[in-house]
Amino acid sequence: MKAQAIRFDQTGDASVLRYTDIDIPEPGPGEVRLRHSAVGVNFIDTYHRSGLYAVPLPSGIGQEAAGVIEALGEGVTEFKVGDRAAYAGGPIGSYSSHRNIAAARLVPVPDAVPDEIAAGTLLRGMTAQYLLKRTFKVESGMTVLIHAAAGGVGQIATQWARALGAKVIGTVGSAAKAKLVAPFCDHVIDYTQGNFAEQVRTLTDGKGVPVVYDGVGAATFNGSIDSLALRGMLVSFGNASGPVPPFSPALLSQKGSLFLTRPTLGHYTATREELLATAADYFSVVANGTVKAEVHQRYALADAAKAHRDLEGRNTTGSIILLP
């Protein structure tokens, strides 16, 4: 069957993305054909497009979507035609109207969670789940620092951390974003207005925080290190401002016997059981209202390049979706 997709033949800026027709064969063994109702846009997509994270070319793009199963390949028993399902974290190629995908990569979408929310927030929600509950376990009474609080992961993580009983310091890059995240944070710092690490020290009586969740990268790395308490952990999970430059491990001892980790979602959802549990945990806090997940920007699939430009220009907040 014919479908529409975004492809790119060379790495570069958003102009390399092209909207084209593709052929979709019948699903193979273990696969389903999913008709996408909404497609998630994430910062990692720009890394694939730019070449920061290399992928074989030519390539599709995108790692997250939700939709309805239209056909089953041989051996698929966990799903049936008409089921709602979603996936996040790959394989790449979600910027499309339809695709074949291994059933083992799909998770069921509960009735209480709309397709747009599943498509636009599953990757970010599962990221928040493993960051807060497994990379560094947030517990009641802690104070945590979450960078880019107005971003897709940030808005989910700040709400979830507070529900776990933590006090949340969130950083943002503008007054408008500070206003947006104020309901989710105990303290909001606009890092364009002074040294955020000094403000964190002031807010913690000079002690610093036990954990910093940093998806920004180069621009915040040094300040994140300076915000940590003794034996604190910096969880560096993204490069929105560019990759962290090389540094000597001695820095970690000099700054307080610190820990540094660079986790990825794939390593926390490596088994079917981990994937299902991580997604179910996230969907449960959305369904019960603990986390209010929203889609703030919608673009036509054909306008994927504009979505990338807006995302890289920091002109977006929260989650972004493409509509096939």
- The SSE order reads EEEHEEEEEHEHEHEHEHEHEHHEHE
Termini Cα gap:
16 Å
Beta-strand percentage range: 25-35%
Task: Catalogue the unreliable spans.
Answer: none
How do you describe this structure in short?
This protein has 324 residues and is α/β, with parallel strands linked by helices. The chain has helices spanning 43-50, 115-135, 152-163, 175-181, 196-203, 221-226, 250-254, 265-268, 272-287, 304-312; strands spanning 2-8, 18-23, 31-41, 59-60, 64-72, 84-88, 98-102, 107-108, 143-146, 167-172, 187-190, 209-214, 228-236, 259-261, 295-300, 319-323.
Would you kindly provide a written description of the structure presented here, covering whatever features stand out?
By secondary structure, the protein is of the alpha/beta class. The longest helix is centred in the middle third of the chain and has 21 residues, at 115-135. α4 links the parallel β10 (167-172) and β11. α2 crosses α3 and α2 (115-135) packs across α9 (272-287). It has 2 domains: 2-122 and 293-323, Alpha-Beta Complex (Quinone Oxidoreductase, Chain A, domain 1); 140-262, NAD(P)-binding Rossmann-like Domain (Rossmann fold, 3-Layer(aba) Sandwich). The strands form 3 sheets. Strands 3, 5, 6, 7, 8, 15 and 16 form a 7-stranded mixed sheet that branches. A 6-stranded parallel sheet has the order 11-10-9-12-13-14, sandwiched between helices. It contains 10 helices and 16 strands. The protein has helices spanning 43-50, 115-135, 152-163, 175-181, 196-203, 221-226, 250-254, 265-268, 272-287, 304-312, and strands at residues 2-8, 18-23, 31-41, 59-60, 64-72, 84-88, 98-102, 107-108, 143-146, 167-172, 187-190, 209-214, 228-236, 259-261, 295-300, 319-323. The mean pLDDT is 96. Residues 12-322 form the Enoyl reductase (ER) domain. This is NADPH2:quinone reductase. Its EC number is 1.6.5.5. GO terms for molecular function: mRNA 3'-UTR AU-rich region binding; NADPH binding; quinone reductase (NADPH) activity; zinc ion binding. InterPro entries: ADH-like_C (IPR013149), ADH-like_N (IPR013154), ER (IPR020843), GroES-like_sf (IPR011032), NAD(P)-bd_dom_sf (IPR036291), QOR-like (IPR047618), Quin_OxRdtase/zeta-crystal_CS (IPR002364).
